[in-house]
Specification:
CATH class: Alpha Beta
Distance between the termini: 33 Å
Helix content: 25-40%
Strand order of the largest sheet: 6-7-8-3-9-10
Radius of gyration: 18 Å
CATH superfamily: P-loop containing nucleotide triphosphate hydrolases
Shape: globular
Number of helices: 8
Strand content: 25-35%
Largest sheet: 6 strands, mixed
Length: 252
């Protein structure tokens, strides 16, 4: 089942009187339970694509269909509701509220949506267990390591059971060991929760945990490769590295 579809997606900006093309006719789909990584050099359009897919920005041309609803043509308030109910976000810098505990940060999207925490306690407990933080649920962000904060951010993104999770450099602010743990958790959520995930990353080791890697250059998709999941990590990593070398991409 397709949960996200981009059709002929383009985005143009005007900078100093000049028109700059960030995306140029991108076609892109994500199916339920699929883990897709997006790679490319700085300025290739990765973050622009992620923002358009999540309804955080409007395309200049083309359309995004999210969980069966086409975002183009909807008023901003309606787009916000579609995004709130269907998209979970994981950012590089965690974006946790410092005065709230780990559990309270996870619950926040439910509260914003007018839901009562007590009705979702089993789900919250399950997510805390999934990310390995059951014993640190009452700790505030400054009492958690960077990796633990990112795990809280992941659980927060999953708590509303969104159609898709969009992750922007989820390992970019972490050491390699912690980054690996985060990618394993994303892989696990994909398999155990049948969760669709799209992750922008510059790190080939992170991309090697995905099912499919989409390579962008100058706002266009120039190549896609299909991987075999975590069980074939060494082979996956070699495929990603070979593709990067062949396309002469440079990490950001």
């Amino acid at each position: 089942m397709i949960v996200l579809k981009a059709e002929s997606l383009s985005k143009h900006y005007k900078i100093g009187g000049h028109r700059v093309t960030a995306l140029d006719g991108v076609n892109f789909t994500v199916e339920k339970g699929e883990f897709v990584a997006i790679m490319g050099p700085s300025g290739s359009g990765k973050s622009t694509l992620l923002h358009l897919l999540g309804g955080l920005d409007h395309p200049s041309k083309g359309a995004v269909t999210l969980a069966g609803q086409q975002l183009s043509g909807l008023k901003d308030k309606k787009v916000t509701l579609v995004r709130r109910h269907n998209v979970g976000f994981v950012f590089q810098f965690f974006n946790l509220l410092p005065t709230l505990s780990a559990e309270e940060n996870i619950v926040l999207p439910l509260i914003i949506d007018g839901k009562k925490k007590r009705h979702y306690q089993d789900r919250i407990d399950g997510l805390l267990d999934l990310v390995g933080l059951s014993d640190r649920r009452h700790h505030k962000p400054d009492q958690l390591s960077g990796g633990e904060q990112q795990r809280v951010a992941m659980a927060r993104a999953l708590v509303t059971e969104p159609a898709i999770v969009l992750a922007d450099e989820p390992t970019g602010n972490l050491d390699s060991k912690t980054g690996k743990a985060i990618m394993v958790l994303l892989r696990r959520s994909c398999e155990q929760l049948n969760q669709a995930i799209v992750a922008v990353t510059h790190d080939p080791r992170a991309a090697a945990y995905s099912d499919r890697v989409v390579f962008l250059s100058d706002g266009k998709i120039v190549q896609e490769i299909h991987l075999e999941g975590e069980s074939s990590f060494p082979e996956n990593l070699k495929m990603v590295m070979d593709a990067l070398e062949n396309l002469e991409f440079e990490g950001e």
